[in-house]
Amino acid sequence: MTVVGLLRKAVVFEIGTWRSLWRWARRRPDVPAGADAFPYTSAVTPVLWTFIVLSAIEIPLVDWLLPWQSARIALLVVGVYGLLWMIGLLASMKVYPHSVGDGGLRVRSGSSIDVRVPWEEIAAVRVRRRSVEGSRTVVVEEQGERRAVSVTVMSSTQVDVELRTPLVLPLARTRGRPVTELRLAADDPAALVRRLRAGLADHAARDEAARTDAAARADGDAR
């Protein structure tokens, strides 16, 4: 990625973090009307709150210890900015949960990842807890012709979504290559899998009803 591309990505992430903080303060999660939300923050929330609390303690402590007024002001600004940024990072994970609705599954990771998988692209879902090497949020694994992409929280996922056909997902690390499986983290993976299976059954029933209706109309026209 070029320097310009990296800068653009950093700016977009920064804007998303502050927008998330605003949404959280107003209690306005980004969940479509009629969709069910599925959070994924239980593992990371204690870690982030620990950093937030330590940063909040550090700000007045540094101000008290430093004898230079200019240095105290500069570090105060940096400290308050860093504190708000970390709260915004936590907020981004809170206000952008996964969701399941009429259109299918929507996978989120803060404000930076937004992947939509329509019902017709989902072949099967299952609960499967996995540990993923490394600390990246998005990890791509290849085995033969199969390619799985994991959207992790604390280097782990709990739900596997098998795709009906290889699908190109809007994730930078896939580099435009189609994937056959999407893995994601969820606080309650069993509930998410139950909701997805129910949605798949409803979608199949609607498709069958539409085909039956179309066949009946065609038969009526033929007569």
Automatic annotation (TrEMBL):
Region (Disordered): 204-223
Keyword terms: Membrane, Transmembrane, Transmembrane helix
Transmembrane segments: 73-93
Record-given protein name: PH domain-containing protein
Phylogenetic classification of the source organism: Bacteria, Bacillati, Actinomycetota, Actinomycetes, Geodermatophilales
